Structures are given as structure tokens and as C-alpha cells.
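Practice problem: predict the structure.
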Amino acid sequence: MATSRYRNTKIIDGKYQETFDFPEIDWSKINTFSIRISDGDRFDTLAHKYFNDGTLYWVIMLINEIHWPWDFASGQIIKIPVDVSDVLKYF
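Answer:
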């Protein structure tokens, strides 16, 4: 049976707040390369470009400790996993 994606959703002050229980990941064991963010880049399009799956945008955010999709700027250097399965095996 599938698990609901809303299982960790809590209501705080009448609003839904999603919380996630991320496993501990030893980032030193994840091979990465760096890219410079350009104007117009988005995490979903970067995930599609490098992982062939735009829904894996959260992997880029997680490895770079970015908490909101708009918390990056043009010119910023971010890390991309060489092999996304190195991260996905923890989930």
C-alpha cells in the first residue's frame, strides 16, 4: 500500500506546514560537480538537465542546503551530484 505524501503535514496557526524527516547523509561520499547559476535557472529545469527528471529538484536543494526554491541568485555556485542515485539510495 502506498504511503500518503501528506503523512508529515502539520497544521500550525490554521495553515498547513510540511515537515520532512530526512535521513543523515554523509555528503563527503557523494561525488559532485559545481555549476554557476545563470539568469532564468530554476531547480526543476536544472534537475531535468542533469538527472533527466525535473521532479528531482529537491536533490539539488538538499545537497546545497537551500530551503526555498527562490533562495539562490545568478552567479551563485551550487553543487550537482554526478550520479543522483547516490543520493536517492538514502530515501
